[in-house]
């Protein structure tokens, strides 16, 4: 190993970064605090490739940590700025620049404070789980593999401190149900935080959750779970870790103990909840742990009965990993190309790259309203928009926030927005928005007016928190107009019945899923179904399937394939669910909104796009 550092104070890296000082140095890696040209403090990590383990280098010659971080974007994960190659003493080096987190790590906080309050523990662990939920939901999932107090950073410029996951040097993409790390990688890991299967080099999303349980235990009680006191005399290399491994695994054969720490004055119900959560997270059998970060988070909030959890007793699927559903985004939506491009440009790009927009004093978009007749695909489009953006997706119905208690609904509204912030970047979708924020001029109930006020207060500039709100309604005329102000739902999109091209796509989608004749004329079907909404078209194909099966069973044909005759027969009987008079009413509503607030530029394909005029706030 070299006995010198590559950069000195004042050195300029790639003409972009001025080195301030070395933070730490270990074999093959040096970490520096630097300033960019504008003086912003950043974190630079230099990889001296001749000293980097081959197991940490990908097939393209890049440190795996770089390729992991350049493809993630979540508020609870250290933010990637850039990476590049540089020559160091005639050797090849790579560097990674990250946002600098001004504060301390959890290890420093735990050493500094003897007692960490229940609220702090909940905030820290919930933030970590929000970041893991994002990482584990990617395709393929990313497993961190090294979650310890040292790798959890606290930004102390916020109150409460903003929690950021760092230390991705051992992170890997999970393929074929797991991740394998070499023995030399294990040398550098904190063994008290590792799940038992990790000692055999096998890592997964559930081993990450085990580490969170160990971290939570350490925060509460000041020592890791199943702590062995005499291990400090045992040092790496890995061959000598066998004794330590055996001691730790032997200790874990005993029941987990919860110390009665003097001065630990947690309420009994909190202790009962936390110990139950930790016990499940630290199960030695992966199948008995939480199945995912969301389940862990729900248990921590008291929303999941751990005793009744299926994963506590089920061993029937041991070693099995449920495949993630493929996310196709806008590709699942036929037509609507103009709207899709506008949403990519006006919403997705600003949320993904807020810095450039803020430089130009442009606000991050807050949300949009989808309105129009029922059955036209407002909910479906919101879901596919979230997939296209790669964001978390939370759908909220009116019943989800209803409460029989005074102010109970207001509290639930607040919780929904807080949850969305924790999981950011998030698409927060409110279905039947008219029932949640009705016009206050039409409300006599003071409690309901308070609920609308709470919703509007939570919505104000929520985009700056990485949350984008989509509201959907069939009754836009009864929504409180204050929700339409700047900084709330700033753009409106009228969702009409699908046009000719969109109907072609819908018929293709639904017919392709079942046995059918090759001579079905999709174009003809689209021509004769004008003003049929998406749900109507699905119903037509469903009824055609039933008709084909009936004729096959009655001996009228040799197979149960759908043919053109079946579809035509059903269409003649099945009229549009939205009558012409109702469509006319929606057209009048659209024109009324145009006159009040908007300048309409509408392509005759799928959705009708509305652009906002300048207007005074109401």
What is the number of strand segments?
20
Q: What is the total number of structural domains?
A: 4
Structural class of the secondary structure composition? alpha+beta
Unreliable stretches (pLDDT < 50, length at least 5) are 231-242, 307-326, 598-618
Briefly note the CATH topology name of the largest domain.
Transferase(Phosphotransferase), domain 1
Tell me, what's the shape?
Answer: globular
Overall mean pLDDT stands at 82
Query: How helical, in percent, are the residues?
Result: 25-40%
CATH class of the largest domain: Mainly Alpha
What is the CATH architecture assignment of the largest domain?
Orthogonal Bundle
Quaternary class: single chain
- Most strands sheet: 7 strands, mixed
Span of the ends, CA to CA: 67 Å
Please name the fourth-level CATH homologous superfamily of the largest domain: Transferase(Phosphotransferase) domain 1
Overview in brief:
By secondary structure, the chain is of the alpha+beta class. Residues 231-242, 307-326 and 598-618 have low confidence and may be disordered.
What does this structure look like?
The protein is α+β, with helices and mostly antiparallel strands. It has four domains: about 10-100, 2-Layer Sandwich (Phosphorylase Kinase, domain 1); about 105-315, Transferase(Phosphotransferase) domain 1 (Transferase(Phosphotransferase), domain 1); about 330-495, 3-Layer(aba) Sandwich (Rossmann fold), CATH 3.40.50; about 500-575, Helicase, Ruva Protein, domain 3. About 35% of the residues lie in helices and about 15% in strands. It is built from 21 helices and 20 strands. It has a seven-stranded mixed sheet, with helices on both faces. A six-stranded antiparallel sheet has the order 1-2-3-4-6-5, with no helix packed on it. Strands 7-9-10 form a three-stranded antiparallel sheet. A hairpin with a 6-residue loop joins β9 and β10. α14 packs parallel to α16.
């Amino acid at each position: 190993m070299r006995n010198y550092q590559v950069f000195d104070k004042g050195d300029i890296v790639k003409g972009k970064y001025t080195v301030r000082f070395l933070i730490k140095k270990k074999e093959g890696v040096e970490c520096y605090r630097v300033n960019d040209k504008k003086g912003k403090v950043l974190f630079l990590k230099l990889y001296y490739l001749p000293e980097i383990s081959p197991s940490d280098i990908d097939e393209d010659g890049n440190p795996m940590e770089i390729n992991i971080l350049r493809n993630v974007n979540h508020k609870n994960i250290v933010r990637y700025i850039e990476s590049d190659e540089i020559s160091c003493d005639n050797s090849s080096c790579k560097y990674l620049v990250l946002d600098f987190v001004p504060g301390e790590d959890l290890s420093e906080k735990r050493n500094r404070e003897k007692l960490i309050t229940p609220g702090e523990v909940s905030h820290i662990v919930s933030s970590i789980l929000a970041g893991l939920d994002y990482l584990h939901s990617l395709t393929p999932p990313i497993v961190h593999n090294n979650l310890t107090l040292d790798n959890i950073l606290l930004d102390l410029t916020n109150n409460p401190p903003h929690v950021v996951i760092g230390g991705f040097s051992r992170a890997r993409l999970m393929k074929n149900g797991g991740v394998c790390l070499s023995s030399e990688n294990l040398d550098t890991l904190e063994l008290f935080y590792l799940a038992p299967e990790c000692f055999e080099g096998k890592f997964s999303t559930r081993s990450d959750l085990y580490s969170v349980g160990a971290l939570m235990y350490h925060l509460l009680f000041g020592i890791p779970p199943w702590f062995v006191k005499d291990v400090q005399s045992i040092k790496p290399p890995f061959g000598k870790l066998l004794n330590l491994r055996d001691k730790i695994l032997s200790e874990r054969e005993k029941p987990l103990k919860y110390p009665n720490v003097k001065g630990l004055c947690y309420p009994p119900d909190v202790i009962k909840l936390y110990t139950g959560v930790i016990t499940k997270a630290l199960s030695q059998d992966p199948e008995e742990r939480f199945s995912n970060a969301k389940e862990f988070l729900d248990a921590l909030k008291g929303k999941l009965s751990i005793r009744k959890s299926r994963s506590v007793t089920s061993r029937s699927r041991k070693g099995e990993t449920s495949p993630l559903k493929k996310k196709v985004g806008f590709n699942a939506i036929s037509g609507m190309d103009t709207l899709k491009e506008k949403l990519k440009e006006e919403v997705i790009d600003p949320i993904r790259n807020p810095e450039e927009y803020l430089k130009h004093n442009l606000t991050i978009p807050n949300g949009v309203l989808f309105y129009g007749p029922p059955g036209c695909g407002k909910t479906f489009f919101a879901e596919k928009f979230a997939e296209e953006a790669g964001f978390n997706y939370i759908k909220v119905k009116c019943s989800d926030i209803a409460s029989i208690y005074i102010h109970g609904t207001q509290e639930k509204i607040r919780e929904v927005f807080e949850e969305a912030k924790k999981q950011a970047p998030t698409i927060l979708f409110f279905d039947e928005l008219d029932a949640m924020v009705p016009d206050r001029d039409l409300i006599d109930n003071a409690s309901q007016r308070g609920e609308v006020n709470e919703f509007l207060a939570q919505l104000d500039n929520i985009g700056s928190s990485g949350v984008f709100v989509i509201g959907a309604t069939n009754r836009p005329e009864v929504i409180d107009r204050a929700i339409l102000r700047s900084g709330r739902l700033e753009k409106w999109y009228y969702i009409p019945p699908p046009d000719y091209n969109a109907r072609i796509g819908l018929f293709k989608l639904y017919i392709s899923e079942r046995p059918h004749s090759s001579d079905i004329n999709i174009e003809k079907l689209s021509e004769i179904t004008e003003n049929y909404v998406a749900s109507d078209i699905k119903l037509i194909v469903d009824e055609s399937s039933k008709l084909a099966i009936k004729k096959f069973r009655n001996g009228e044909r040799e197979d149960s394939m759908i043919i053109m005759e079946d579809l035509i027969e059903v269409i003649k009987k099945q009229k549009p669910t939205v009558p012409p008079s109702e469509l006319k009413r929606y057209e009048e509503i659209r024109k009324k909104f145009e006159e009040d607030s908007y300048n309409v530029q509408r392509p005759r394909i799928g959705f009708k796009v509305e652009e906002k005029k300048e207007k005074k706030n109401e």
